[in-house]
Structure formats: structure tokens, C-alpha cells
Amino acid sequence: MNRTTKIGIRLGLLASVGAAVSGIASAQDGLTYSRDIAPILQEKCVSCHNPEGIGPMPLMNYQQVRPFAFLIKDRTSKRIMPPWHVDTGIGIQDFKNDASLGDDQIAKISAWVDAGAPEGDPADMPPPLELPSGGDWQLAEQLGPPDVIVRSRPYDVIANGQDQWWEPRVEFTGLDKERWLRAAEFKPSYPLGKKVVHHGHAVLIPEGEQRSVGLARYGVGKSWEVYPEGTGMRVPPNGIIAWNLHYFPIGAEAPQDVVEVGLWFYPDGVTPELETVGEALFRVDGLNGMARGQDIVIPPHGYQVLQGTHVLDGPAIIHSYRPHLHMRGKVMTMEAIYPDGRREVLSQVNKYDHNWQIAYIYDDHAKPLLPTGTVLQFTSVFDNTANNPINPDPEQWVVFGRRGVDEMSHAWVGITYVNEEEFAQALARRRAQQETLSLDDGQALTQSGNR
Ligand code: HEC
């Protein structure tokens, strides 16, 4: 038992691995808010459920939590809260940004609610959290202030109406020479911008070059990206930033809204080993080269399944997975078909919710390492029936479009293409890691895409 727990910690495996064996029962008796529940809410809920956060109500003290006890039990036991929509039954489970509750934490919350949600002794409360203000850069604590900040041009968001798009082009003159990007954060204005910016991105088009550099991509649940150590994106000194901002009116005007993107670079003169393209778009809606969305035609009260395949013409390392569907989207699976024919589901989002755009960021030891010739296959499932709780109208035929009531089907995949030598090195490092682990564990790990 100890051994499982120890490996669980070393690997960063889900707490549930340990919990399954280390008696949940021991702590069930006499559970109190102050001693047992408050620490869980602080760890997994309060970052959103605070007066300035995006959660609808604060959950910071007993008075705030008590009226919601039943709803909290309901949402946590159904794994609706915290928002984390990846299938925990298949695919890689080790993520840097895992927000989910462990089975033991869910069990504790349920047992506490069933016991009448007692407060216990306030002296048992953990010290209050120091929450960063919603106006701060989230990455500042880890990385300090950004090296460069770029801004969109102001836009007046109307109070009521349909989706709006704002696509200003702004000159980029932030650097005196080419630099390597280490991290980027997309920050809507605060507090109103956070409510009206549905999603957006800022793409740099370098002067006199044929490529585009995705500086930052945003959706509720995803606002920053830190590339793995030794990996960076090449950013030219000059160019044009093409902003693509999708606003959704919320009943209050948001005048002169400006979005900022903060950029953190590797120190001057430092060249990271690997160059990444950041998040790349993989279509699941028809053949590349044909019109986008050509395959999306969802009948009223019906379903549709779409598949898109992409052959990797060089080896690649995958850092993150972020499916993008709209209101009828339910599932998107990312599967690898290796050159030897083996298939492996890397990740599956099976509780997709259009209100959230979560990037699932793999732990370093679990990032898929994919050899040349691997086929990445994506499968999307749409549900246009009345069973889909956010379906605005099951009577409609649904086709491709930018509005939330139309559909889309693609994945943003954080990917670094490497050469064969770099790939062989990454593979050797992974094997060495796994050998150490399997010596401890008595069995090899099977979750990492290569074994
Ligand atoms: C990333 C931000 C975030 C985190 C973390 C989060 N919530 Fe939420 N929560 C929200 C938002 C936004 C809503 C309302 C929209 C929705 O339901 O998706 C919500 C809704 C809820 C509701 C339903 C409220 C209602 O009136 O319908 C409950 C209950 C809840 N959260 C509890 C929790 C608990 C308990 C945790 C931690 C275990 C948690 N949430 C973690 C953002 C969050």
C-alpha cells in the first residue's frame, strides 16, 4: 500500500490511485467543514468561487458554503464541478493542470453533506488563501511580470444582442531582435472583459515571412501557456498582430474593451533545444484543402460522428490537447495509430461543454512521443437531441459556423515537431524513466504512448 502511494506521488498520478487503497473510511466519522472540507474547497474551488472569480457564488467560509451543501454534493459527485471534462476511464491521466477532485475528496464531501454538513470547530480552519486579483497576470507569481505586453484596439461591446467579432490588426514592434517565447498569457480587461470575451487569439504575422506565430489563444478555462523547459517559439522583432476576438454580450455594456497579451521570453542569447509551433489546429470537419466544415450536417433530433486523420510526416511530441466544438458537441477523442498498427487512445473528452475551453496539459513524463508516420485520428460526436441540456433547439438542422448555435469540429494540439535524433533522445529518456518506475512497481506503465 505504501509503495503505491509513494509511486503515486513521484509520478504525479491522480490522488485516486492512492485513495483506492489507503482507507477512505478512516476519516469518514465526524467530518467537519472546518477541518475536512474547507481545505478541499480551498484547493479545488475557491480560485473561481470567490467574490471576484468567475464562479457564480463564493465558497470561502461556512456561511457561504452551507446553503449550497446539497448542490455541491450533486455537482461534485457527478463530476460537473470542478470543470474537467476529460474521460478519466481511458487515455493518459497525468496532467500538469489537473483540476479534478480525487475519489477520496468526492467521497468526503458526500459523507459530510449526508451527515448534515456540520461546521465543527472554526479553530480547525486552514489559514485563508491569498487570492491573486482577477486583474493580475496569473503567470506573474511563477514567472514575474511579462517582458512585453501587446494590446488590442478598444472595442465597444453592446449590452444585448448576438455574438460579435472584433479583428483589429496592430503593429508589433515589441522586440529589437528575434527572441524565443517561453510563455504567454491572454488577459481580457478586468472585471467586465472577463465576462464578455468568449474566446480569442492573437497571431503574429512576421514581416517578410510566410509563417504565422500563434502568440496566445484563449477560452474560458484556458488563458495561458508555458512551454516545457527547453522548448520555445521563435518570435520575430517586427510584424503585424492579427487579433481575433469573439465577444458575447452579457446584458451590460462594456465600453472601450481592450485585451492584453503578456509575453515571457527566454533570456537574451539563450536558444532552447526544441522549437515548438505551439497549439496547432487539427481539423475534424472535412478534408484539408476543401472548405472548412464541409462535413458537418447534423439532423434535427439526431447525432453525427465525424472523423479526421492526420499523418505525421516527422516525429512529434505532444504537450496538450484542447478540443473545440460548439453546443451540440459531446465527445472528441484523440487516438494514435502507430506505424506498426498499434492503436492507443491518447485522450478523450467525453463531457464536452461549450462554455469551457480547457487545455489538458500533459505531465512531462506522460507526453505522447509519436514516431514518423503515426496517424493522429480525431473523432467528434454531436448530440442534437433534447437530451443535450445545452441544445438551444433540437428542431434545427445544424451546419458549420462561427456562432455558438452553429457547429465546429477541430482540436488545438500543443505540438513540437522534432528531428529523428531529438526523437531518439526523448524516447531513450522516457524508457530510462519507465525502467526506474517499473523496478519500483513491478510492472511497466502503459499510459505514455511508447513502451
Ligand atoms: C474554473 C473555475 C471553477 C472551479 C475551479 C470550480 N467552479 Fe463551480 N462553477 C464555476 C462556474 C463558472 C459555474 C457556473 C457555470 C457552470 O455551471 O458551468 C459554477 C457552478 C457551480 C455550481 C452550481 C451553482 C448553481 O447555482 O447552479 C456549484 C454547486 C459549484 N460550481 C461548486 C463548485 C465546487 C464545489 C468546486 C470545487 C470542488 C467548484 N465549483 C470549482 C466555476 C468553477
Summarize the structure.
With 451 residues, this protein is of the alpha+beta class. Helix content is 19%, strand content 30%.
Q: What bound compounds does this protein have? A: heme C
What is the terminal-to-terminal distance?
Answer: 25 Å
Q: Can you give the helix content as a percent range?
A: 10-25%
At CATH's second level, what is the architecture of the largest domain? Sandwich
Structural category? alpha+beta
CATH T-level topology of the largest domain: Jelly Rolls
Average per-residue pLDDT, rounded, comes to: 87
- The fraction of residues assigned to DSSP E strands is 25-35%
Question: Could you give a short account of the major beta sheet?
Answer: 6 strands, mixed
pLDDT < 50 runs, ≥5 residues: 1-27, 441-451
Shape assignment: globular
- Please tally the helical runs, counting DSSP H or I stretches of 4 or more residues: 9
Please report the first level of CATH classification, the CATH class of the largest domain: Mainly Beta
Give the total of beta strands.
Answer: 24
Domain count = 3
**Oligomer class:** single chain
Rg: 23 Å
